[in-house]
Write a structure and sequence with these properties.
With about 80 residues, the chain is mostly helical. It has a domain of about 40 residues: Ribosomal Protein S14/S29 (30s Ribosomal Protein S14, Chain N, Irregular). Helix content is about 30%, strand content about 5%.
Length: about 80
């Protein structure tokens, strides 16, 4: 599927309710309780390089951009 959200593909399926119900049943994302896809950056949605400490839920790239505004100092 090329769309980022499974609900965007409903334009053609609205005329066919039985096929739409089957499509929804098999294509909606699962509710995650653990694993790699559970933690996403709340700024960009990236799943890699995730910083969960202090409840930040940011990826490392977004953290570098927002760190000074959040009150972190860079010690070098």
């Amino acid at each position: 599927m090329t769309t980022s959200d499974h609900k965007k593909a409903f334009t053609q399926l609205n005329a066919k309710p039985v096929k739409k119900a089957k499509y929804i049943k098999f294509n909606q994302p699962k509710d995650r309780s653990c694993g790699f896809a559970l933690n996403k950056c709340k700024n960009c949605g990236c799943m890699r390089g995730h910083i969960n400490k202090y409840g930040l839920n940011l990826c490392r790239r977004c953290f570098r951009d927002m760190a000074i505004g959040l009150g972190f100092k860079k010690y070098s």
